[in-house]
Amino acid sequence: MKTYVYETIPQGCCEEPRHYEIEQEDSASPLTQHPETGEPIRRVVLGGVELVKESGSCGCGPEGCC
Length: 66
Hints:
Elements: E1 2-8, E2 19-24, E3 41-43, E4 60-61, E5 64-65
Antiparallel strand pairs: 1-2, 1-3, 4-5
C-alpha cells in the first residue's frame, strides 16, 4: 500500500485546504470524498523538477537579468 496526500477542495474564497495522508492500494482510483467526513477531496501530486540552466542561456546573475 502507498500513502497519498489529499487536500480538501475549498468551497469559498477564504477557505484554506486541509491536508491528509491516506493509505491506498497501488491500483486504487483517487478518492473524491474523505472516507470519514465525506468532504470533497483531491489527490495532491508531489514531486519536483530541477531546473538546469544551460550555458549561454538568458537568466539572472551578478550582471543582472536579461
